[in-house]
Amino acid sequence: MSDPVFCVIEGDIARITIDNPPVNVTSQAVRAGLMAALDTAETAGVARVALTGAGRAFVAGADAKEFDRPPMPPHLPDVVARIEGFPVPVVAAINGAALGGGLELALACAARIAAPTATLGLPEVTLGVVPGAGGTQRLPRLIGLAPALALIAEGRVISAAEALRLGLVDGIVDDPVVVAATCALPDRPATGSRPMPVDDPAALDKARKLAARRLPGQTAPVAAIDLVAAAARLPLAEGLAQERATFLALKTSDQAAALRHLFFAERAAAALGRKGGDLLDSAVVVGGGTMGAAIAYALAGVGVSVALVETDAAGADRARSNVARLYAEAVVRGKTTAIQAEATQAARHTFHVGYDALPPAQIAIEAVFEDLAVKRQVFAALDAALPETTILATNTSYLDPDRIAEGLRAPGRFLGLHFFSPAHLMKLVEVIRARDTSAETLSTVLHLAARLGKIPVRAGVCDGFIGNRILTRYRQTCDVMLIEGALPAQIDAAMRGFGMAMGPYEVQDLSGLDIAYANRKRLGWARKPGFRYIPIADRIVEETGRLGRKTGAGWYDYEDGKPVSSSRINQLVAAESARAGLLRRLFSDEEIITRATTSMIEEGARLLEEGIADTPADIDLVMVHGYGFPRWRGGPMHYAERLGLAGILGRIDSFAAADPLSWGVPALLRKATTTGRSLTDLTRKP
Ligand code: NAI
Fold first, then answer.
1. Parallel, antiparallel, or unpaired for β 57-59 and 13-18?
2. Which of 57, 307, 339, 400 has the smallest set of CB atoms within 10 Å of its CB?
3. With contact defined as beta carbons under 8 Å apart, do 113 and 92 qualify?
4. pLDDT of residue 1
5. What is the pTM of this model?
6. 482-504 pLDDT, tens per residue?
7. What is d(CA 629, CA 501) in angstroms, rounded to the nearest whole number?
8. CA 584 to chain centre
């Protein structure tokens, strides 16, 4: 392996290059290499050092492989201190991404010259830690407290142009290394020796409120804000000591472990689509409702031409206006201009009644009503109208893709593609392997998903796939607690307290009680053998006609659009308890959280056991990105492993003793606890 840092001396200039592909992370070897290179430069008696990165990055951050190990010297703060105290100026030539530790190195330099494509930021909080090598102390000294907060507290990454406006870089040039070696230097003290930034209580207050809203429950953003606040009160050395202590404490925290777990899972999911596959540039979307219009819009956004099919002219008009609305929203949000939006619509969208005039598209995605007969008709028509090579995908939520696909000419070309609403914004997509789906079809679709910027998760066929199956189980568990004594508002509050984006009953009111009702009827749940059926939601639909927000009432009453606990529903719940012969009892929030999360974990373990989900991390991605599970808990399966699988098993055993119809230990979970192996390990493919 070549040296990760090399130093070239030309006349009285030393050029130090960090060369640790792909993105020059600050591994132990890089840190040691930097120390050695600085020694070389000092011995040679140069007048200046230009510090840069090889390839497309300056330094994109810390080495993720070292996250779970004890820190090894030389530590990054030592390297940073050596640069700041170097006898001659060290100038950063920021050729690409300068993130985290990379920006901290640059902050210690006498000046920073950036390429136009450079990006800069301190994204540590997104991984549950704070900058650990002076970022929270030097950045506010350089650009002021409020602008530093805006970067550090949310981990925002900015462009070179914005960095120049903020005074974070001194210039933008095409060849920063040449300029860094020769430019005149500003006459100013090192960043760390500058006066403290002016205190700004209003900016700190604003940052705290923003963090509570955007990253609720997370400790790192709060700690980062406290450190920036300290920069305005403490001398550098004290601020740095406080920062380092906070960094080291957070590094081993549960939240950091959870956020790192998701970071790696997301990276692995994104990499699936980079393995190759045919490049698709034409698509048919059937159904231009909520999902179809958003899917068509997303496809057009990555250069795919989309023919949207509806059954009649009125439907096609509705589809056209649904699509147009999405473009209008993008214009309002500043994502595109009105002219551009108009041009894209004209160039990439056509609207059709029926299948006669369809172009020979490479993929067709169906998003019509959730009705097996309708979907089968649609696929029969697509099969007849399109080439045999066209990939056929269904966006069904609950129907069996294998039944939808019956009778197709080339079933290897068929699969499920389960988007989440709003489909153009939600990153998650479940990619469903139907019985005959070919490997090529899967890889081509994963490639498309990557182009769409999605996080694809592969899943097998079962009722609800990964996400909706766990959701169904979670709701069922909550309904059992309702009948035993809890109330909807209490369960919602408890689950929000755990960190869920919303409680289960608020969500049902938002999406409408009728869809789940129809689904339960379709599946004949009330008569399902060996199943504890709780009919409360059915009674609400049948006896009160309350279908959620769209009818102005559901599990809750609504006052000025705000949900308030409903005495009518609470009475209905109590009446059901009485009808079931149950004496209602009090539930603590903790008991609610324990039962609800344990049921998600149990169902997740079953999905792994049945081979529906490939890995625990896939389940975590689905629940975090599709169902509001708190990111900082890493997803239900990571949460379970962190709590300890033996404890989870004990809980399930005791729940099963009291309610054997609802609970049972999955064999995979039992195996994990008896062998001491993790679920990830047990599901790893050889
Ligand atoms: P929607 O009711 O908004 O849209 C359905 C559209 O399909 C309507 O515009 C209708 O005119 C059209 N349509 C019906 N029959 C047709 C036919 N034979 N040929 C052509 N067009 C036809 O429904 P939505 O919410 O967009 O759902 C569509 C599918 O996506 C369903 O299978 C649903 O389960 C699934 N889905 C929905 C999600 C959601 O959150 N809404 C999330 C994920 C999947």
1. unpaired
2. 339
3. yes
4. 54
5. 0.94
6. 999 999 999 999 999 999 999 99
7. 7
8. 39
- Ligand 1, closest atom to CA 419? 43
- Which of 222, 257, 263, 268 lies closest to 130, judged by CA? 222
> What is the gyration radius of the CA atoms in the chain, in angstroms?
28
Q: Closest ligand 1 atom, CA of 377?
A: 18
What 3 state SS string does 612-624 have? CECCHHHHHHHHH
| Distance in angstroms (rounded) separating the CA atoms of residues 401 and 300 | 26
Q: What ligand 1 atom has the least distance to the C-alpha of 371? A: 32
Q: Count CB-CB contacts under 10 A for residue 642.
A: 14
Residue 62 identity: A
Is the CB of 378 inside a 6 Å radius of any atom of ligand 1?
A: yes
C-alpha triplet 31, 34, 39: angle, nearest 5°:
130
Pocket flag, ligand 1, residue 395 (CB < 6 Å): yes
Shared fold status for 282-459 and 467-683: no
Digit-coded pLDDT (tens) for 511-566? 999 988 988 888 888 888 888 999 999 999 999 999 999 999 999 999 999 999 99
Nearest-10 crossing angle of helices 135-143, 236-251:
130
Question: For the chain, how many helices (H) and strands (E)?
Answer: 29, 20
Residue-range domain boundaries for the chain: 5-188+195-252, 282-459, 467-683
Alpha helices in 302-400 (DSSP H): 313-332, 338-348, 372-385
The contacts found for 525-529 with CB under 8 angstroms, 24 or more apart, are none
Q: Are 132 and 107 in contact (CB under 8 A)?
A: no
Write down the ipTM of this complex: 0.98
- Please say if the pLDDT value at position 277 is more than 80: no
Domain 467-683 is found in CATH 3.20.20.120:
no
List the one residue out of 107, 110, 108 whose CA is nearest residue 88: 110
Cβ 172 vs Cβ 160: under 8 Å: yes
367 alpha carbon – ligand 1 mean position (Å):
4
What is the CA(375)–ligand 1 centre distance, in A?
10
- Of the candidates 397, 385, 387, 423, which has an alpha carbon nearest to the alpha carbon of residue 299? 423
Question: What CATH number belongs to 282-459?
Answer: 3.40.50.720
Do the Cβ atoms of 503 and 496 come closer than 8 Å? yes
For 98-109, give one letter per residue: b (16+ CB within 10 A) or e: bbbbbbbbbbbb
Angstrom distance (rounded) from CA 611 to CA 620: 15
Would you call 171 helix, strand, or coil by DSSP? strand
Integer Cα distance of 423 and 432 in angstroms: 16
For ligand 1, atom 39, which residue shows the shortest CA distance? 421
Fold type of domain 5-188+195-252: 2-enoyl-CoA Hydratase; Chain A, domain 1 (3.90.226)
Place of tokens 């239900």: 636
Is residue 8 classed as helix, strand or coil in its secondary structure? strand
SS3 call for 337: coil
Residue ranges in 12-85 assigned as alpha helix (H): 28-44, 76-84
CA distances (Å), 213 to each of 207, 210, 501, 579, in order? Answer: 10, 5, 11, 42
Q: How confident is the model at residue 171 (pLDDT cuts 50, 70, 90)?
A: very high
Is 418 an annotated catalytic residue? Answer: yes
Dihedral sign of CA atoms 125, 129, 134, 136 in order: positive
List Cβ neighbours of 476 (8 Å cut-off, separation of 6 or more): 532, 534, 599, 662
Using alpha carbons only, give the angle 516, 519, 525 rounded to the nearest 5 degrees: 105
Would you say the CB of residue 286 lies under 6 angstroms from ligand 1? yes
Task: Find the largest Cα–Cα distance for the chain.
Answer: 92
